[in-house]
Amino acid sequence: CLSSPKDGGQYREVIEYLLPRLESVGLSYSGRIDTEVGTLTHMGNLFPALFYPKHSAILDKDKEKRISMLGLIGHPDLNADLAASNLTQIGKKVDSFWTRLPNSRCELSASQFSNRINSDSMQHLANAIEEIESEIVVIPPICSLKNYSPWMEALQTLGKQVLEAVTPLSLPGTRLQEALEKVAIKDGAHICKSREALKIRAEDGKA
């Protein structure tokens, strides 16, 4: 998620350059440069942002939609009970639910969890979501960059909004890094990983 900038003009140039390129590699963003919204974190708190991944959970203050937090047993990035409790304290109607996906029998990192997601896992998740009566269901981030758009779009066909809790680091950060690297390579950059930069020289606006 991208929050308010100090330099609005330069920020606008970056956004206009970057967002279409991110979308071209499978990572779509939503938002407006003049409208800040409250994205819903995995802790049930609000994080202000101007731009955010398309399927991020947004807490709309003007609509009293019923929200359900769906935690996945073994996934570290959403404590459904804690998030629901925090949201209830600020007057939102929130329930919490839990399910266990196939091949997730122990505690895993978000990336490890994502690597085990397959079509059977997504079908199990879809079945669990269909049983929830709320208009909005919030899940932890589970999709890699490759599967983010197609799988999240598929979940939207269940008759309710299925959104990701915002986790500033973890899998969304990994997706963004991978997308940025793909964009850089498409634009002609050569990426050198695991190397330390000792000095940078800038000439004519280029580093």
Describe this structure in words.
The chain is an alpha/beta fold and 207 residues long. 35% of the residues lie in helices and 16% in strands. The chain has 6 helices and 8 strands. The chain has helices at residues 8-24, 80-89, 110-115, 119-130, 145-155, 170-186, and strands at residues 29-31, 37-40, 46-49, 51-53, 67-72, 94-99, 136-139, 161-164. Strands 6-5-7-8 form a 4-stranded parallel sheet, sandwiched between helices. Strands 1-4 form a two-stranded antiparallel ribbon. A two-stranded antiparallel sheet has the order 2-3. It is globular and about 60 Å long. The model has no long low-confidence stretch (mean pLDDT 88).
Runs in which pLDDT lies below 50 for 5 or more consecutive residues are none
Q: Biggest sheet, open or closed, and with what strands and sense?
A: 4 strands, parallel
Output mean pLDDT. 88
**What is the chain-wise order of helices and strands?**
HEEEEEHEHHEHEH
- Give the structural class: alpha/beta
Using the CA coordinates, give the radius of gyration: 18 Å
Instruction: State the share of residues found in helices, binned by percent.
Output: 25-40%
Q: What is the 3D shape?
A: globular
Strand order, largest beta sheet: 6-5-7-8
Q: Work out the helix count.
A: 6
Query: How large is the share of residues in beta strands?
Result: 15-25%
In total, the number of strands is 8
Distance between the termini: 26 Å
Blueprint (SSEs and pairs):
Elements: H1 8-24, E1 29-31, E2 37-40, E3 46-49, E4 51-53, E5 67-72, H2 80-89, E6 94-99, H3 110-115, H4 119-130, E7 136-139, H5 145-155, E8 161-164, H6 170-186
Parallel strand pairs: 5-6, 5-7, 7-8
Antiparallel strand pairs: 1-4, 2-3
Helix pairs in contact: 1-6
